[in-house]
Design a protein that fits this description.
229 residues; five-stranded parallel β-sheet
């Protein structure tokens, strides 16, 4: 195990896959105070990927800032980590991935874009985060599976659902009567085989980034870090 590296990870990526990329200490999705405890336990690099939103107090900005002042590098991506990195990158937190960039640039604003329901014991996702639905709709549109009007209708339907209810079946059901039934059926079949998991992609990018940091190698410039564009 890479000593001094703590990663808060839950539903964004399974731990077996994560460990194949980075052999670190993995902890459950972070809640208020967990970053402080990681620093007290000797962490020199903290990866904040998943965190709680509604079931407990979320990670506070001040604890991230305290970690940075203590000389700890804090990397955020994918979920809660992307949110906090977009808010704190000018103060030293490091952001990685497309979701982070979208928040940083204002293309995403709401917290519920990355929220989902998951099994508290296995961390298996039980609903689909809106960022993944957006990416899957974009891929379906680019592949010619659906047209722009149907894509907009499905996105509106997804946004209108409470986050625990966002599954592809529920999104299509919410769009019934507002789009061509054949288009909806094609999209549902497409999502069943080709759904995009943007949160997982960004989580893996963050783990690779942290692996390079822990190995003493500065990550390549293609990775997004404080002050870069």
């Amino acid at each position: 195990m890479t000593r001094g590296v703590v990663v808060f990870l839950g539903p964004s990526c399974d731990h077996a896959t994560a460990r194949a990329v980075l052999d670190a200490e993995y902890r459950p999705p972070a809640k208020r105070g967990d970053i402080t405890r990681a620093v007290e336990d000797g962490a020199r690099i903290i990866g904040l990927i998943d965190g709680v939103f509604f079931q407990d107090c979320a990670v506070a900005h001040r604890e991230v800032l305290a970690a940075l002042r203590a000389g700890v590098r804090v990397v955020g991506a994918s979920s809660m980590g992307a949110l906090r990195a977009a808010e704190l990158d000018s103060l030293g937190m490091e952001g990685v991935g497309e979701i982070y960039r979208a928040y940083r640039e204002g293309r995403l604003v709401a917290d519920d874009e990355v929220a989902l329901l998951f099994d508290p014991e296995t961390y298996v996702p039980l609903s689909e985060p809106l960022v993944n639905i957006r990416a899957t709709l974009q891929e379906a549109l680019a592949s010619g599976v659906i047209g722009a009007d149907t894509a907009r209708t499905l996105l509106d339907a997804a946004r209108g659902l409470y986050f625990p209810d966002r599954t592809y079946d529920m999104v299509v059901e919410a769009a019934e009567g507002k789009a061509d039934p054949e288009d909806l059926a094609r999209f549902l079949a497409f999502a069943g085989e080709h759904a995009v998991d943007r949160k997982r992609e960004d989580a893996l990018l963050a783990l690779e980034y942290i692996r390079d940091l822990a190995g003493g190698v500065e990550p390549p410039g293609s990775m997004v870090s404080p002050g870069s564009s």
